[in-house]
Amino acid sequence: MNTKPYIEKHKDRFINELIELLKIPSISADPAYKNDVIKTSEHIKKSLEDAGCDLVEICETPGYPIVYGEKIINPDLPTVLVYGHYDVQPPDPINLWDSPPFEPVIKKTELHPEGAIFARGACDDKGQMYMHVKALEYLTANNELPCNVKFMIEGEEEVGSESLGWFLENNREKLANDVILISDTGMISKEVPSITTGLRGLSYVEVEVTGPNRDLHSGLYGGAVANPINILCDMIAQLHDENNHITIPGFYDKVEELSKEERTEMAKAPFSQEDYNKALDIAQEHGEKGYTTNERNSIRPTLDVNGIWGGYTGEGAKTVIASKAYAKISMRLVPDQDWKEITDLFQKHFESIAPKSVKVKVSPHHGGTAYVTPIDSIGYQAASKAYEDTFGKTPIPQRSGGSIPIVALFENELNSKSILMGFGLDSDAIHSPNEHFGIWNYLKGIETIPHFYKHFATMSK
Amino acid sequence: MNTKPYIEKHKDRFINELIELLKIPSISADPAYKNDVIKTSEHIKKSLEDAGCDLVEICETPGYPIVYGEKIINPDLPTVLVYGHYDVQPPDPINLWDSPPFEPVIKKTELHPEGAIFARGACDDKGQMYMHVKALEYLTANNELPCNVKFMIEGEEEVGSESLGWFLENNREKLANDVILISDTGMISKEVPSITTGLRGLSYVEVEVTGPNRDLHSGLYGGAVANPINILCDMIAQLHDENNHITIPGFYDKVEELSKEERTEMAKAPFSQEDYNKALDIAQEHGEKGYTTNERNSIRPTLDVNGIWGGYTGEGAKTVIASKAYAKISMRLVPDQDWKEITDLFQKHFESIAPKSVKVKVSPHHGGTAYVTPIDSIGYQAASKAYEDTFGKTPIPQRSGGSIPIVALFENELNSKSILMGFGLDSDAIHSPNEHFGIWNYLKGIETIPHFYKHFATMSK
């Protein structure tokens, strides 16, 4: 198999097609973009048909539709199910983008001398998902598809994949497969390919602290009533101790502790704390005592405030004591923490530390369970060989700090292992302003994926 | 002197004139309203001319103009200088208003069976300032003005009166007076008139905490870099100890401590903690240990967060670690704290408690010094007699928690004492949604003020 000539011949079209897809602002978190999200699902349907699927359906769900596509060449052959998502994160803070988030531009960067596409969703996950569509085009156009393939592309990943569980439950037969293939993660670098073998779980909550029943003049009331912003800050500060351990009782009870050997193995991955700090322009790293940076963001659970607001936030000064203050707080979880249990523990603890002078409301948003993939499965080995074919190197198995909660769901509902072949880089700024995806990475993904099909079909015999 | 018949005859016009003034959104904090602020100054000029001033000028300053007006009947007679402001607080949060803030409506409330005017600035300070314009109209229309009068109405009070110091310095002769009269405070209740004898000072700062140089994905980086929102919360939490004392070193060094006798005297003012809590719908009051509610909000300095923001604050969830987090923080000060010194102490302390993993910037906004009026002055005694004439009761001298920083400035620049005859109520919701001013209070002010002129002229002989 040599995928390169076809890709070389069609690469301009492959890039332009992705750019068209990136122009649609499919922000699932904001109801104002509902029509764009739906328009994107129709766009995906057309792309799958063009790439060679025999059947493509836009499947209605309680939320945004899921695009299902398939090409069944022989029911006796193994089946690969490709998962991806067509929705994107909100682009805020919009003023920090160098170019509008939904007007894709190609720019060269130090890491991407071949150019990178700058747009919201360029990497997460439109770009990475579209690699699979183009890989299918390669396989069908060249008559090299060695097995059956199914696509399941959803529109609610960035808001917790709420409809996906429902969809899996109701379509087990349709979705039956031998392995699930996902590109929604990254690799260590262009020179060091890696396969993600672990993902963290997530519990995302919103909290509201209410003090007086209306905004008050801070001169007339200041000092005599509980200020909900000060109280919220106090309560958030209490969630970590002086060693940056999380203080929620029971939070660490089920945390999988890695052995010394496993931690030593992890520490071999190439990493420079100095470069890391320099890239983020920070004078010092920060995190749980007793763990390294790579451990803190992969094998350890964390708690971060993702947003906070209350009182007067406009220009100038307003001497007000707000009635309410709010925060969005998420916890990244590790095996074997149960996200629903952790959400309950958070809620109970947060309510328990509130002083009597305020009222507190905790609203769970969504969550998901952590996941670890075995590296001796046929799926992992097929992926590893695919990278060897196109990178000339064996990829490194890597635990990631991110969460794709649906990976655990797939295992439960569909009884399948997921293989996480990510081609993005940490520096791609996903979820941040100026998200981008290297053209080299995009084309390398399209080049590598067909090799996975070849090896998986061969090894499954 | 009997001011009642004239007021009874003209009260509908007095109310309608105020309503017209309230329709102009003179929000000094927001540059978007610049034209409206200037339009309001022209409106005030016209009102002062109509009320009987011989000379009215719109005086340009480095900021918004100051309206100066005068009626000099005899240079040998004493002169009263009336101060007020025509700018208003921003109306945020706008969605909590029951009617639009700049479309005044009259509604009856439990405390205001005669009706109250609901609009931003109804009480603070357009309504209270306009009482003085109408009091002048009464005095000139009825030929009862017993002394000279000057008006100085500014447009930057809600943003720190930055141009006022410059104006005073450059116009000492023009502004020469024997007493300054201000209605920008409240009274205990409609049955218990009071004169404000103390005001708190103010130091208002804005803080910015910067973590990584861009927003980051909380999965990939969570736990390994300092989250500026968590750090900001930690730092804010550290500003109070477990007894709600402020922890800034040196903060209390110059605080005037009241004697047991003075505190016993203060405790005699009618007050029900139960009613207070009920009115604010709070289960428990909150404040510095060892002091009562009325002490906490008048004779004690305080520190409150007036606004906080950072990260994702929109609908739904975004798993982001923000690059920056912000807060607006103000401190109410008491005699003899120096606001510039306190601002410096805050800045040094806040910078010193920042961990190395973040950068911190403190930007002072504005400030002012606390003030105490002696109750044996002619001005205070004349005001006291005026209330006796119209309320049939001697007013109670009261220390207020609010700040009118310019009162200390007047004493320094113009060598005059200020008399604070406020007719508002704590429940008027100034600086809050649904600000209002009772029609009874408005007319009672117009009724009472001319009596002050009478007594002040007589007692000054």
From TrEMBL, chains A, B:
Residues 198-356 form the Peptidase M20 dimerisation domain. GO terms for molecular function: metal ion binding; peptidase activity. InterPro entries: Bact_exopeptidase_dim_dom (IPR036264), Cyt/Met_Dipeptidase (IPR051458), Peptidase_M20 (IPR002933), Peptidase_M20_dimer (IPR011650). Gene3D superfamilies: 3.30.70.360, Zn peptidases (3.40.630.10). GO terms for biological process: proteolysis. Keywords: Hydrolase, Metal-binding, Protease. This is Acetylornithine deacetylase. It comes from Nonlabens tegetincola. The lineage of its organism: Bacteria, Pseudomonadati, Bacteroidota, Flavobacteriia, Flavobacteriales.
